[in-house]
User: Which sequence fits this backbone?
């Protein structure tokens, strides 16, 4: 009897244990099926930051998420690079675009009509600023106490056009809600035969006739230039910039990339020899290139300070060449301008290259300039070559795509640049550049 009861009890216990084991096993299998994908990924070691990401792709291949739990990668939108607030979108307006010298009608009304068309066209292309050349050849498209009237508006240098072109342009730009920067070529007086006649009061003529001012201006095979080695020359150029800042409602003043026109030592041999003779008495003279850079730095610093004496908040900027070595060869110490105080408020390298340039690809150049501008008070704008779009320039590489400028804008924004300047107005509306301009306009709206 006892044995029989024990056997029945044992059978009952075994049946219960077996049932429990089956239940636990089923529960574990269900859980594994639910979390199998996560286990496959988590079993992989995290890729090291110092090693290539090897093996991650295969782990992800083992982990195929169900459609209702994870979206496909292709459906994740890419983050767009937005334009920064107050982004500079400027176009250069060279003196050729303003030229009235060959027009029968040189009146203020005719000039106003010409410039109004520029304002309207530039604004329609998404521009917010005009960089207008007002001193192309040691002259002035405005009433100046230092420089003669430009042949661009008067027909012949020194002839008063009967109105003030810069005042007209500033008013027209501001009426349309645009800004205007006065573009100055600091050293150039004449190139080849342009202008064909220099006014009697042009400093080239008055200084050439004075033996005490020998060397202040220089005749080169390609033209006539001021020599920045002399303090009096630097003072003239600075006073001219100050005059614009004081008398006109401009939103900025800009120098272009024309500094020393040649590397030939004969350009300023007398001045450099005099410097060496004096410096040798107390030390060792610096080389010609470094000395020239010092002269240009003295000029730029003086211009900057003179502008600030009349309008402390008026921006002064320079648009040097995109190739830094070329800049140095011309006496332009762009590294100092980008890092030290008291030179410029903005820098705009002329990056007239595309992404396929073998010497200086655009993206590489943009990043180099971005790294160079370490003074947080200096804004970085990028100069873009509208004129090359759709052309045979650079071995035809500008014809390979119609969105090069748009990609350059995107690259500049990714590099945290402050805006762009396009060269030039005349190329914003041509058959050659039409597609490129339309595509970049989409980025500027």
Assistant:
């Amino acid at each position: 009897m006892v044995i029989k009861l024990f056997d029945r009890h044992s059978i009952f216990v075994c049946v219960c244990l077996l049932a429990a084991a089956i239940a636990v096993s089923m529960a574990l299998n269900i859980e594994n099926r639910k979390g199998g994908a996560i286990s496959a990924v988590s079993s992989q070691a995290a890729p090291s930051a110092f090693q290539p990401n090897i093996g991650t792709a295969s782990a992800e291949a083992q982990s195929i998420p169900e459609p209702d739990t994870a979206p496909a990668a292709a459906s994740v939108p890419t983050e767009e690079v937005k334009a920064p607030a107050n982004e500079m979108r400027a176009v250069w307006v060279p003196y050729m675009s303003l030229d009235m010298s060959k027009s029968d009608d040189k009146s203020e009304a005719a000039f106003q009509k010409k410039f109004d068309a520029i304002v309207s066209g530039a604004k329609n292309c998404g521009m917010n600023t005009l960089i207008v050349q007002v001193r192309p050849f040691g002259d002035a498209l405005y009433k100046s106490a230092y420089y003669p009237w430009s042949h661009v508006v008067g027909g012949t240098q020194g002839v008063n056009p009967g109105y003030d072109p810069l005042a007209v342009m500033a008013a027209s730009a501001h009426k349309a809600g645009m800004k205007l920067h006065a573009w100055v070529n600091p050293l150039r007086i004449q190139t080849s035969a342009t202008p064909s006649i220099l006014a009697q009061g042009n400093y080239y003529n008055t200084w050439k006739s004075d033996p005490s001012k020998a060397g202040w201006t220089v005749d080169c095979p390609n033209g006539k230039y001021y020599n920045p080695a002399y303090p009096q020359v630097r003072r003239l150029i600075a006073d001219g910039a100050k005059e614009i800042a004081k008398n006109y409602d401009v939103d900025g003043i800009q120098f272009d990339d024309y500094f020393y026109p040649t590397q030939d030592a004969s350009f300023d041999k007398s001045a450099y020899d005099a410097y060496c003779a004096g410096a040798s008495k107390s030390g060792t003279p610096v080389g010609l290139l470094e000395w020239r850079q010092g002269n240009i730095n003295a000029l730029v610093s003086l211009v900057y300070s003179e502008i600030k004496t009349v309008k402390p908040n008026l921006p002064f900027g320079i648009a040097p060449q995109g190739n830094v070595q070329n800049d140095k060869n011309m006496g332009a110490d762009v590294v100092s301008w980008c890092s030290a105080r008291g030179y410029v408020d903005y820098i705009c390298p002329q990056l007239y290259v595309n992404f396929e340039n073998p010497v200086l690809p655009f993206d590489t150049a943009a990043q180099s300039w971005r790294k160079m501008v370490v003074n947080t008070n200096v804004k970085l704008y990028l100069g873009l070559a509208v004129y090359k779009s759709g052309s045979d320039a650079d071995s035809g590489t500008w014809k390979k795509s119609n969105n090069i400028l748009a990609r350059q804008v995107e690259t500049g924004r990714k590099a945290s640049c402050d805006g762009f300047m396009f060269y030039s107005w005349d190329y914003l509306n041509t058959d050659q550049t039409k597609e490129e301009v339309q595509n970049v306009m989409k980025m500027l709206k």
Notes: Confidence is low (pLDDT under 50) at residues 1-79.
